[in-house]
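Chapter summary example: a protein plus S-adenosylmethionine.
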Amino acid sequence: MKSLDIFRVTSLAHSIVTEYLAEGDIAIDATIGNGNDTMFLAQTVGDKGHVFGFDIQEKALNETGNLIFSNGLQHSVTLFLQNHAYVRKYIPEEQHGNISAIMFNLGYLPGTDKSLTTETESTINALSDSCDLLTSNGIITVSVYNEQKNGLTEQLAIMKFVETISSKHFETAHIHYPGRVKTPPELFVIRKR
Ligand SMILES: C[S@@+](CC[C@H](N)C(=O)[O-])C[C@H]1O[C@@H](n2cnc3c(N)ncnc32)[C@H](O)[C@@H]1O
């Protein structure tokens, strides 16, 4: 049985995605970083599915590529050294409208240059295009760390974005952790109806 830890955004995001992503599905990791989310997505979709991943850092691609290879999942994963703002351009056209889960884990790669962090404008562009790429009942999770550089601005922009997308076509949720002193992360969830 999988354990649900609602007090860690990364764990909660995985638990939510598990409910919407199945073997054979197509998924996107919009911020591959150390590859934990890419691995989780690839294991969930299996051999018959596929995961597309984006990061702007070669280090993230190399490390995630190695992790994926050492777990024998290389046939199920395609990694792009690209800004996720170009997600629409890089996802094959035949998969537009066919994506079951898209994960964003915003901010910087721990242990590397903190200036190489996600930026509000590209995040919102990527989110907007991600909504179009989703299949019906597809899910987007966005973990945001508002204590980081840009974090609060990014979080407020995401809040505005989720408040203004069509409630006819999407359901949204916002999970936050009141009273937490250090690193108060937040999770946004968007489901296409
Ligand atoms: C918090 S880390 C992601 C952690 C990762 N999901 C994991 O499981 O290890 C954020 C990542 O986003 C990447 N990033 C920053 N701006 C980006 C952009 N515009 N497009 C794609 N990736 C970006 C950073 O390089 C960093 O690796």
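Key point: The longest strand covers residues 134-145.
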